[in-house]
Amino acid sequence: MRFEQHDIEFQCAANETVLHAALRSGVAITASCRNGTCRTCMCHLQSGQVNYQVEWPGLSFDEKADGYILPCVATPLSELIIDKLVLSSA
C-alpha cells in the first residue's frame, strides 16, 4: 500500500482495514468513529480496489464512483495507491 501524497509505503493484510494497517505501521490517519459513518478518514483511492466491512459505508454513490474510500472500514482487494489523505498531527 502506498500513500502517494506523503511518500509512505506499508503492508496491509487482506483481512485488515487500511486504517488499522496504517496505525500499526506508525502512520496516523485522521479518524474518529472507526465504523464508516463520520467520514473523518475519507480519502481518494488513486488505484486499486477495496472491500467494505459494512454494507454501505458513509459515502454517497457519486463519492464511491469517484474513488473515495473510508479506510476505517476498507480492506484491500489489491495493491492500493491512495492520495488526498489527511494525516493526524497528534
Give a structural overview.
This protein has 90 residues and is an alpha+beta fold. It has one domain (2-83): Beta-grasp domain (Ubiquitin-like (UB roll), Roll). The protein contains two helices and seven strands, in the order E-E-H-E-E-H-E-E-E. The strands form two sheets. A five-stranded mixed sheet has the order 2-1-7-3-5. Strands 4-6 form a two-stranded antiparallel sheet. The protein is globular, with a radius of gyration of 12 Å.
CATH class reads Alpha Beta
Radius of gyration: 12 Å
Number of domains: 1
Mind summarizing the main beta sheet? 5 strands, mixed
Q: Helical element count?
A: 2
State the separation between the terminal residues, measured CA to CA. Answer: 22 Å
The CATH superfamily name is: Beta-grasp domain
Q: Please report which band the strand proportion falls in: under 5%, 5-15%, 15-25%, 25-35%, 35-45% or over 45%.
A: 15-25%
CATH T-level fold name:
Ubiquitin-like (UB roll)
By DSSP, the count of extended strands is 7
The 3D shape can be described as globular
Residue runs with pLDDT of under 50 for 5 or more positions: none
Structural class: alpha+beta
**Order of strands across the main sheet:** 2-1-7-3-5
User: Helix share of residues?
Assistant: 10-25%
- Architecture (CATH level 2) name: Roll
Q: Secondary-structure element sequence?
A: EEHEEHEEE
- Overall pLDDT level: 91
Protein name: 2Fe-2S iron-sulfur cluster binding domain-containing protein
Cofactor: [2Fe-2S] cluster
Keywords: 2Fe-2S, Electron transport, Iron, Iron-sulfur, Metal-binding, Transport
Family: Belongs to the 2Fe2S plant-type ferredoxin family.
